[in-house]
Design brief:
By secondary structure, the chain is mostly helical. The protein has one domain. Helix 1 packs across helix 3 and helix 2 packs across helix 3. It has 4 helices and no strands. The termini are far apart.
Length: 84
C-alpha cells in the first residue's frame, strides 16, 4: 500500500512561514507541531522569500512568464545533463 501524498493550502503554508519570519516559533518545533518535515517548511520559506517581490510588482503576469521561461530553461539544462 502506498501512502497518499498530502497537499497543503497556500494559506496554511504562508501562515507557518510568517510565524517563522516573525520569530514566533523555531522551524523544527513548528514542523513537529504540524506533522511535516523540517525540510518541507524550509523549502516553503525559501519559495516565499523568493517570490515576495511579486506582491509589489506592477506587471506580475509579464514577470511570471519570464520566471516560468527561466525555470523551464533550467529544467531542460538539468535534464540534458542526466541524459548524457
Amino acid at each position: 500500500m502506498s501512502r497518499q501524498r498530502r497537499s497543503f493550502s497556500a494559506k496554511f503554508k504562508s501562515d507557518l512561514v510568517i510565524e517563522l519570519l516573525k520569530g514566533e516559533k523555531v522551524l523544527n518545533i513548528s514542523a513537529t507541531e504540524n506533522n511535516i518535515q523540517p525540510n518541507l517548511l524550509r523549502n516553503w520559506k525559501k519559495e516565499f522569500l523568493n517570490n515576495a517581490s511579486v506582491v509589489f510588482d506592477d506587471k506580475p503576469e509579464e514577470n511570471f512568464k519570464g520566471k516560468l521561461a527561466e525555470e523551464q530553461k533550467e529544467l531542460k539544462t538539468k535534464r540534458s545533463c542526466f541524459e548524457r
